[in-house]
Design brief:
The structure is a single chain. This protein is mainly α. The protein has 21 helices and eleven strands. Strand 8, helix 7 and strand 9 form a beta-alpha-beta unit. Helix 1 crosses helix 10, helix 16 packs antiparallel against helix 21 and helix 17 packs across helix 20. The longest helix is centred in the N-terminal third of the chain and has 17 residues. Bound molecules: glutamic acid. The site of glutamic acid (GLU) has 7 residues, from loops.
């Protein structure tokens, strides 16, 4: 199926506010959003808050926040409004009731007065008879309509059941991801659309909404595939056109089990708080089960919004791969403009770490820190570890034991440090910059008859505490002349 470029496309993301927005839900939202954008359609956000015990206003806010952080702007829904509202199911209860009563009046649904005990007894009996069908026995299906109405009016507890037409035959769901999936209509039971407490069931409320909202494509998790034949029956009873369904796979952990807390972060907010960039996160999730081609890993949001199509969605379960997410996040960080990185990543991270309020150095210094650290970051907060050596006093510098053993406690290390001190002292404060520093240090290996690593690594460990840092010129420039010389001096005792 190809995108239709049909301005009539209307899709919805319909989370239940019973918890945070999880990665699986986020991907469903991304696919709906991208499909709407790619087809010039409308993306609707609906809050399925009919479960009164588990839905909370706070969760709704968390979900809206997560959607905004993801950058998934919705065209209709909470706060955006729209012509098909309200967009909270709790505000649509009257519509469900109206639709159910219409179906009863038309003979497409009926009141059922069976008590839970009677239903259990029927099931037992069917079991004993070894019936292949052990569901609802359609006990109330043929109660005369006026009698049923009288019992309802008298206050007798009742549910409302849909009347699956006798001649319905198999229900074939044509799914854009799974292909044709066939369900036996009799197995569907005359299922309940309204409970005895007066609330609609999920399969009913969803279809009433999707029909009234003119939804053309239902894109959702494949845990709902088994609900779909029932929903098809409801569409048919309502006389509404059945939308195209696209059921997308679950997201699993590396062990092949359903993603859960055991695998680490599961909610969008946790990823946000861990320092992932929204663009990278959306890119990563979009690629979990969809690919425009076999190659690209970095696919900017704009391209997703342009190229997304359902025919490239895989029906195989997607495996959450944190390493790939980190890789993509790194790619986005590295591609950031230095000024943006300084403002949006470096300064906030340094402030959050309690290192720097942004007024300790001049602009050029912070830009140099960005140049030095940005290419070495996978996550935003990596800058904190990169920059730690700059925010420790010389005496309290923590040395990495292995690095000391490997580079300082070696023959020749002391010579390297001494030669470095001597060379660097020739530079005044005003000349303390990467180029000048490298110029005076570069001749040392040859002069000392030592390999580059044996000369520069001791200097690096002396100044940073560890063996990894950006280029020696940048590393020392950021540290400043006085601290660099003090640390090199101080490290001689370890050499
Ligand atoms: N509120 C339902 C859920 O979160 C919506 C399912 C659907 O998209 O129909 O699972």
């Amino acid at each position: 199926m190809t995108n239709t470029n049909d301005a009539q496309v209307r899709v919805r993301f319909a989370p239940s506010p019973t918890g945070k927005l999880h990665v699986g839900g986020a991907r469903t939202a991304i696919y709906n959003w991208a499909f709407a954008r790619a087809t010039g359609g409308t993306f609707i956000l609906r809050i399925d808050d009919t479960d009164p015990t588990r839905s909370t206003e706070e969760n709704t806010q968390v979900i809206l926040r997560a959607m905004r952080w993801l950058g998934l702007d919705w065209d209709e829904g909470p706060e955006a409004g729209g012509d098909y509202g309200p967009y909270f199911q709790t505000e649509r209860l009257g519509l469900y009731r109206e639709a159910a009563e219409r179906l009863v009046a038309e003979g497409r649904a009926y009141y059922c007065f069976c008590t839970p005990e009677q239903l259990a007894a029927d099931r037992e009996a069917a079991k004993e008879r070894n019936d292949t069908f052990q569901g609802y026995q359609r006990t109330c299906r043929d109660i005369d309509a006026s009698e049923a109405q009288a019992r309802v009016d008298a206050g007798e507890p009742h549910t409302i059941r849909i009347k699956v037409p006798d001649d319905r035959g198999d229900v074939v769901v044509r799914d854009a991801v799974h292909g044709e999936v066939t369900f036996n209509a009799r197995e569907l039971d005359d299922f309940i659309i309204f409970r005895s407490d007066g609330t609609p069931t999920y399969n009913f409320a969803t279809v009433v909404d999707d029909a009234l909202m003119g939804i053309t494509h239902v894109i959702r998790g494949d845990d709902h595939l088994s609900n779909t034949p029932r929903q098809v029956i409801v569409y048919e009873a309502l006389g509404a056109p059945t939308p195209t369904f696209a059921h997308i796979s679950m997201i699993l952990g590396a062990d092949g089990k359903k993603l859960s807390k055991r695998h680490g972060a599961t909610s969008v907010e946790e990823y946000r708080d861990a320092g992932y960039l929204s663009d990278a996160f959306v890119n990563y999730l979009a690629l979990l089960g969809w690919a425009p081609d076999g190659e690209s890993t970095v696919i900017p949001r704009k391209r997703i919004a342009r190229e997304f199509s359902l025919d490239h969605v895989s029906k195989n379960p997607a495996i959450m791969d944190p390493k790939k997410l980190d890789f993509i996040n790194g790619e986005y960080l590295h591609a950031m403009d230095d000024g943006d990185f300084t403002r949006e990543i470096l300064l906030p991270e340094l402030a959050a770490a309690g290192f720097d309020d942004g007024n300790t150095h001049d602009e050029a210094w912070y830009l140099l820190a960005t140049e030095a650290f940005k290419p070495r970051c996978t996550l935003s907060r990596d800058v904190v570890n990169q920059a730690r050596y700059l925010y420790t006093s010389d005496e309290e510098l923590a040395y990495d034991e292995k690095a000391v053993k490997k580079w300082l406690a070696k023959q020749g290390a002391r010579d390297a440090l001494e030669a470095a001190s001597e060379a660097l002292t020739t530079l005044g404060e005003a000349d303390w910059n990467p180029t000048a520093i490298e110029e005076v240090l570069d001749p040392l290996p040859e002069r000392l008859g030592m390999g580059k690593g044996r000369v520069f690594q001791p200097i690096r460990v002396a100044c940073v505490g560890g063996a990894a840092s950006p280029g020696i010129g940048e590393t020392l420039t950021l540290l400043g002349r006085e601290h660099a010389l003090t640390r090199i001096d101080q490290a001689k005792s370890l050499a």
